[in-house]
Amino acid sequence: MHDVIIHLTMFALTGYMLTVMYIVNSIQNWIEDLYWKQLDLKYPDMPDAMVHHGFYYAYHNTTLRSGVIDGVKRAKELFGDLKIIVLGHSMGGAMASLCALDLRVHHNVGDVQVMTFGQPRIGNAVFASYYTQFVPNTIRVTHEHDIVPHLPPYYPHFPRKTYHHFPREVWLHEAGFGLLAYTVDTVCDGSGEDPSCSRSVMGNSILDHLIYYNVNLKAESWNSCRIVRDPSLAKYGTTDDAGNIKLSKNPVSSALKLNTELDAAVNVV
């Protein structure tokens, strides 16, 4: 069994927002805009599931969707049955979640896993319930006082009208004091809105949004983006003319070619 990893963003926040959703002047402006996003679009074929149209259209009505679907189809032709792991940071986390749901519901992809970092809420509680049903293998990582997972706001007294996270949250936070401080990974409950996790603190930090697992996800300059990749993986990667990075233990030969060579060797023996 092979894995394919689709990087919807380990891009920095500003670059991804510029190319995928709309042009903003600053991170602060984008965050302020998140406060006012309304649940105004019914998710197709899921009764009472509501999302914000901006999140939905940023994935479904752009070339992002067709590019991902085409990539998955081509990978399946080469490698056969696959585990799909979809990753995303910030707005890319919202796109990663919608992508995974799309693959499961509309493209019969059986094994889809999701890991996001600092993603905003994207739908109501009914949507979160449907999402969990179709994409149960989801980890939604939050960090300390990261402001973005707190947005759009959650209003517990209006459960039918408010945004609602889906599980499973893993909250990264500091414990101890001074030289004895250390990072704790708290696995939260299955509600999506565990009051003892990131909701237990004020979401007021942009810095916490830009650093996850000690990796700085910020772009070097405005109007730019970058792919965050472990330097040790460079020898396994090639980049095509479209800027897609392909990782393989044997980047020169495809798995299809390798399988053909192995079959030929067996037949000779």
Summarize this structure briefly.
The chain is an alpha/beta fold and 269 residues long. The chain has helices at 13-21, 27-34, 53-60, 63-79, 91-106, 125-134, 207-210, 255-268, and strands at 2-9, 41-42, 50-51, 82-89, 112-117, 138-143, 169-175, 182-187, 211-212, 215-216, 237-239, 245-247. Strand 7 and strand 8 (182-187) form a beta hairpin.
Care to describe what's here?
By secondary structure, this protein is of the alpha/beta class. It has one domain: Alpha/Beta hydrolase fold, catalytic domain (Rossmann fold), CATH 3.40.50.1820. The protein has helices spanning 13-21, 27-34, 53-60, 63-79, 91-106, 125-134, 207-210, 255-268, and strands at residues 2-9, 41-42, 50-51, 82-89, 112-117, 138-143, 169-175, 182-187, 211-212, 215-216, 237-239, 245-247. Helix 5 links the parallel strand 4 (82-89) and strand 5. The longest helix is centred in the N-terminal third of the chain and has 17 residues, at 63-79. It is globular and about 50 Å long. It is an enzyme of class 3 (hydrolase). GO terms for molecular function: triacylglycerol lipase activity. Its EC number is 3.1.1.3.
Question: What is this structure's SSE topology?
Answer:
Elements: E1 2-9, H1 13-21, H2 27-34, E2 41-42, E3 50-51, H3 53-60, H4 63-79, E4 82-89, H5 91-106, E5 112-117, H6 125-134, E6 138-143, E7 169-175, E8 182-187, H7 207-210, E9 211-212, E10 215-216, E11 237-239, E12 245-247, H8 255-268
Parallel strand pairs: 1-4, 4-5, 5-6, 6-7
Antiparallel strand pairs: 2-3, 7-8, 9-10, 11-12
Helix pairs in contact: 3-5
